[in-house]
């Protein structure tokens, strides 16, 4: 790893059992290595005495290189029995987008990607259908089709995993990908797969949530972005939003209106991830 | 029934199988009897060919008295095989409020009642606990305590029903009343009992929804006002709203924040009912 | 005009001084010509005794052709001294999009256009800069560049007007077009030019509203879509929305977040227009 | 000052020119005196190199008493040339409510006060009218009437100021108080007077904002809570919120709907103040 440390920011995400003096010691550490703290947010879950922290600091005057930061910090982290990681602004997360036939979430992400709203790279788009290839082509991003049937799923997923590994993918975004991933795939990318579900979870899990919403007669529809776990639609929630509807809206209207929610909610979840703002705390997320 | 027809408004709520010419005939009828239409809203559920209509008109120049309106309109309604009712602005709906120990929804309703936001009368408040009597006293509204145990429930409910009948109650509002009403009670007041549930239904039915919401890690909490049916928390929804929360909010915070939602959502549902805006359409509501 | 009347909907937009019997007579008219009313919304501004109405009806069983509808309805409209128009679902409004260098509003409109959310045609895009031509090319829409300087403005606008006339343009959408149109241009397309302003009007008129918002320290930013009149940012408002911000947001953040508002607010305003839902009532709009 | 330090929380609000190591030194200080940090939020305004910080810590194991904290911390604050203050959870802010004739904001505050949502004391209510005395009486809070005319204003304000001083008032809340305070009064309570204005500032300053909103034809109304400065409606904004309206709403409807906004926005601003969350930064506020 070679990097110019000018204008590089470091991000520490850190959790441990709560104890006095954690912030003092960590900020002292950053001060000593010449880091200038830009943003600091901490939270103590007092029921569970669970401490979590995100610090962003600028490394322009750092007295140690980024490549040494991990090993320099490790002893302090061990002292607190912490889970932690350090990310750098010049090491872009590598994101794979999975799609099927709907284009709205993909288009939204690509537009923001193009506007440089995200500090990520998108080396590939994967789909079980060829339909959205023209969009990938226009964006200059390789588009890989892996058709999935019940029979071919294991081998196709194996190929996908191999490809994702080869390309050093950090994050998988399911942008209305209409296939359930196997437990094997999910374990491979634990807390690294973001999905968009077209309802206000936990309401209307599973298929056809707009039809369910219509039939239940709710006065608002929603969308939920969450990490994918082996329990369908049960993973830790990252972001949700809703929209008011009325008795005049048909199921078709809900689908149309819901697209706007899906786009924006998935886009926000990806932004939080790309800014290293998310810590998974059991079945919940902390979004700093 | 004697009434001054000056400045009285009539409200027609009307549903029937869809057909051509319904609006034409009904508005023609109102025109002929000297009514001046103030507000008209119609909706056709095209899947089910279900027509619904609300018309409000002023009776200042009416050529027939309010007391004759029902029988005069009936032949037209029969022609369309309709369900319908006509209400008058000078016949206030008589509302009973049911409470337990939480006062926020009751206070909200009483404050709005006092501000004349609702065109209703509240002849009594019923509770299974004596705690909120001082609030009722301050408002000058009789407060009846019917303590409920598993054993006494049938007889206590029978007394409540008798009292509600005696006072010609049109609507029962459960303002955080912490008792499940019996099927018998519910049948007695079909589509005439409004409840406030402290979650975004259908998420988190049953008890402790804020605890459920906390544990699921949702990013928004909600409240839902609905008609009470025999299936707990499954009745037709009248109004819902939500509020954003974060990982910093404890269950106690959710309870506190949720109070604001419960108050406002129940208050709106009661406003819609008091303005004769709601038609129940199976498991759903039309709120004009 | 030849049209298949199967599945054609007609839309009447109608305003007049308030009087008894208007709805009755108009719905009677529609009934007699075999129209089936799908949607009806009326409003009486009681202060000004101003009546307004939108009716949508299906013409599948119409006893008169669409081409005769105007002259058949005219006598009734005269009786009420009305302003009115009738539109048909198979006569798509022809919309010209004006842009400068920002692409987000244009992209949003084109995506929805492509998804068939709007019942419109976009025969051309006009810009004072060549930058967005590739987007127009990808969408297969002619892109005309009219560079504007203080000196060339009158002649360039004259060319634009000629082109818009030639192409029978019904509506001009300023999708972050960074030029003030001359009074002459505005008069030519009275109530036919929709703008998006990047603030919650009437706050922050004129240039740099995000900078103004930052400096004033507001806790929410907004966007406003309005008809263009000769008074800058003073035209009748069609739609507005807002987004919460915090002290952490820089002007750059406001610009980025505001893009999402601008897109959605302009998109909604165009939807309302394309569905024939808007009546201008002096300095205000009625959006049915 | 005597206090039990068990379960007392301390709150530091701290601003200074930005520099490396501030957080490290302050958290080190808190660690050394046995404080357990519960919440820490910092912000650097990078344009102006302005650093701001809020830390809440528990003093159960504090090695120095609260009474010594100020002098112990002072040298560190001087090192950074800081503005700062330390507050304690067991020293309730003393709040005076000013009202005129509208009761909704007062009722809202008193209900929350009664629910212990605020960690404050309300030793008195001041009004220029006797109307709301019964509400104060019911809450057991002294109610002082100071009728104001143009002539009597200086002497009446002088009496008010004397009374506020005598009662050690920390904060004045104008809960729809319909009098403009004199510059003298405002200087006396600099950044200690919170007002609620019934519009989305900077839109519709001055009188009759709902009438202004109606006439401008906005699609949303708002309310704004801000600190009072000598420039009317120009003080630093603490909180804002909005509500959607339609062409059907009359001015009277806006007034009624706006009451809900005014109540909630003022209630939130008071909550932020009571939790020591607000720092005034020139014309803006930082709300941690």
TrEMBL record, chains A, B, C, D:
Source organism: Labilibaculum manganireducens
Active site per database record: 233
GO molecular function terms noted in the UniProt entry: formyltetrahydrofolate deformylase activity
Name of this chain's protein: Formyltetrahydrofolate deformylase
Pathway note: Purine metabolism; IMP biosynthesis via de novo pathway; formate from 10-formyl-5,6,7,8-tetrahydrofolate: step 1/1
Pfam assignment, any one: Formyl_trans_N
Known function: Catalyzes the hydrolysis of 10-formyltetrahydrofolate (formyl-FH4) to formate and tetrahydrofolate (FH4).
Gene: purU
Key word Cell inner membrane present: no
CDD domains xrefs: ACT_F4HF-DF, FMT_core_Formyl-FH4-Hydrolase_C
Documented EC number(s): 3.5.1.10
SUPFAM superfamilies xref list: ACT-like (SSF55021), Formyltransferase (SSF53328)
Family stated for the protein in its record: Belongs to the PurU family.
GO BP term, pick one: one-carbon metabolic process
Keywords: Hydrolase, One-carbon metabolism, Purine biosynthesis
Signal sequence region: none
Segments forming domain Formyl transferase N-terminal: 94-270
Catalyzed reactions: (6R)-10-formyltetrahydrofolate + H2O = (6S)-5,6,7,8-tetrahydrofolate + formate + H(+)
